[in-house]
Amino acid sequence: MAMFRSLVASAHQRQPPAGPAGGDSGLEAQYSCPICLEVYHRPVAIGSCGHTFCGECLQPCLQVPSPLCPLCRLPFDPKKVDKATHVEKQLSSYKAPCRGCNKKVTLAKMRVHVTSCLKVQEQMANCPKFVPVVPTSQPIPSNIPNRSTFACPYCGARNLDQQELVKHCVESHRSDPNRVVCPICSAMPWGDPSYKSANFLQHLLHRHKFSYDTFVDYNIDEEAAFQAALALSLSEN
């Protein structure tokens, strides 16, 4: 098993490149955090697998007893997460074109620039809104499950959206050993309302830090979306 994990870690290792491979065009993507998908901010690296993340993005994973790398899912020692100084130096050295105005900006300053770039703001304002492919006169069903707010499975606190539920459980139930049903998963079409997670807090941090809507592409058909979500749910078991 140890040899297998070592091979998996080697296969998944994702160190930022030593130089701007492929020129400026993909430089921003090469130095983007795999969690927030933005240019690294105060990057840190996991010692065992070498994967790099923003310090703030990795922080929730460090709050559980047995953390797993968000990228390769291998366990790691939270005491062996160090500041990625080599990545910080590269962020200060390399420049990439802004995706809005095309001005070359140092990667370390890209986040600040994007928030103030008028071209980027214009692009965001002009993003197409989601509408049904075909107009329909069918009434909206009244028995649609509530997938917007949830109740805490530990204490019953109600009307928590997904992010509030994660925050509430981290702050109030970090040491609770009880096995509970995930209210988010059980509300989904593929969810099992009787399945109790052995480590609910870690499940929350790894599966529900971001909304499912963030990852679902509305251009794929409903069956493909269902199968992808089902695979995510089953991989936990």
From TrEMBL:
From which organism does this entry originate?
Octodon degus
Determine if Transferase is one of this entry's keywords.
Answer: yes
Keyword Glycoprotein attached: no
Location in the cell reads: Cytoplasm
| Annotated InterPro entries | Di19_Zn-bd, RNF_E3_ubiq-protein_ligase, ZF_C2HC_RNF, Znf_RING, Znf_RING/FYVE/PHD, Znf_RING_CS
Q: Which GO terms describe its cellular component?
A: cytoplasm
> Any idea where the C2HC RNF-type domain is?
98-117
Under catalytic activity, the entry for this protein gives: S-ubiquitinyl-[E2 ubiquitin-conjugating enzyme]-L-cysteine + [acceptor protein]-L-lysine = [E2 ubiquitin-conjugating enzyme]-L-cysteine + N(6)-ubiquitinyl-[acceptor protein]-L-lysine
What gene is it encoded by?
A: Rnf166
Enzyme nomenclature, EC number: 2.3.2.27
Q: Which UniProt keywords apply?
A: Cytoplasm, Metal-binding, Transferase, Ubl conjugation pathway, Zinc, Zinc-finger
The pathway to which it is assigned is:
Protein modification; protein ubiquitination
Give GO terms: molecular function aspect only.
ubiquitin protein ligase activity; zinc ion binding
One record GO biological process: ubiquitin-dependent protein catabolic process
Task: List, for all copies, the residue spans of the domain called RING-type.
Answer: 33-73
Annotated protein name in UniProt? E3 ubiquitin-protein ligase RNF166
